[in-house]
Amino acid sequence: MQTDIHPYLLIYLIGCALVVFLTLFKVVVFWFIGWITKENILNKNLKKLQYPDEETFTSKFLLFFGTLVLEAALSWVNVLVIIFQIIKMLLTVIREALTTKPEAVKALRFPLRNNPNMSREAVWAYLSALQIKVGEKQPSESDLLYSLEEVEDYYPSFNKQAALNQLKDLNIISKDIILSTLNELNTLGVET
Description:
The protein is mostly helical and 192 residues long. Helix content is 73%, strand content 0%. The protein starts with 6 loop residues before the first helix and ends in a 5-residue tail after the last helix.
């Protein structure tokens, strides 16, 4: 069959179609890997402390579609980029699986990766404890207050005292720091 399409244009269009196919394949592969590694549950828990997403489904869809069109326009360049992204993701998962982790870190990560119904206060407590176990400095009273207030700004129903009590139960941070933070909350007018 004779076509009037220039061979270079045909190669470009094949690259565009391949980008669309590989992008959809990448989305499915990333979702599947997230499901296997329970990254989806971790992300659900982490979203409980992040700024609420106020974008509508329509705006998210339009952004995805616009990005897909732009990526398809890059044709073969983006084919190479997507293949690199898939390989990088697979290598990252393998590296994560082979990396040894201390038992304390595993114990703190387990609920975050396996319990999608954790309260916002429990997620905050586990993340705070995990940050210390992975090498960050012990937070001071003001650090804890700032972190609690930041979450409360996003979610007014966030119970700071319950979050501190959960953190205290994990026995990671000095009880003196937690008690002084609780006392400071009481003096600031937070109900007990």
